[in-house]
Amino acid sequence: MTVYFEDLDEGDVMEFGTYEVTAAEIVEFAERYDPQWFHTDPERARQQSHFGALAASGWHTCAMAMRLVVDGHYRDAAGLGAAGIEHLRWPNPTVPGDELSVRVAVLETRRSESDPSRGLVTLDQTVSNQDDEVKAEMRPTVLYQCRSAPEDA
């Protein structure tokens, strides 16, 4: 069933998971996109970083979370992409062995004034591991296709 703008209400909560994080994937992503030593050198990261272990790039954590949300929601939604993210933080490092899950709460829904065939949905998205340790928090605004025109709503 396709999820349209009208199907999302403020206060709705969706949960998606799990994604197992591996050292090999952390290094592979980092070597390509964020080649800082604490993402690419497990031994040095363990011995010298404030993380105390190999740590995934925050962007990698976001990418893994995106995969979970796409598989669990956007694949069957009339989503049209994100308009932006107004808040993003990584309070704890993502490390090998973490099993990530994502919790998404709908904060606000509003029909677009410039194009009423679309709606904007602001979300509170939290990425956590198996111990409920928060790895990422973000507040994206996503554009959705509306099921009906405003005069039909």
Topology:
Blueprint: E1 13-20, H1 23-33, H2 37-40, H3 42-48, H4 58-72, E2 79-89, E3 99-111, E4 118-128, E5 134-145
Antiparallel strand pairs: 1-3, 2-5, 3-4, 4-5
What's the short version?
The protein has 153 residues and is of the alpha+beta class.
Give a structural overview.
This protein is of the alpha+beta class. It has a single domain (about 5-145), classed as Thiol Ester Dehydrase, Chain A (Roll). The protein has helices at about 25-35, 35-40, 40-50, 60-70; strands spanning about 15-20, 80-90, 100-110, 120-130, 135-145. The chain has a 5-stranded antiparallel sheet with strand order 1-3-4-5-2, covered by helices on one side. The longest helix is centred in the middle third of the chain and has 15 residues, at about 60-70. It is elongated and about 65 Å long. The mean pLDDT is about 95.
How is the main sheet built?
5 strands, antiparallel
The gross shape turns out to be: elongated
Query: Which structural class best describes the helix and strand composition?
Result: alpha+beta
Q: What top-tier CATH class fits best? A: Alpha Beta
The amount of beta strand, in percent, is 35-45%
Oligomer: single chain
The CATH architecture would be Roll
The CATH topology name reads: Thiol Ester Dehydrase, Chain A
State the low-pLDDT regions, or none: none
Mean pLDDT: 96
**Strand order within the widest sheet?**
1-3-4-5-2
Percent of residues in helices comes to 10-25%
| Distance, first to last CA | 19 Å
Distinct helical segment count:
4
Order of helices and strands: EHHHHEEEE
**Computed CA radius of gyration, to the nearest angstrom:** 18 Å
CATH superfamily: Hotdog Thioesterase
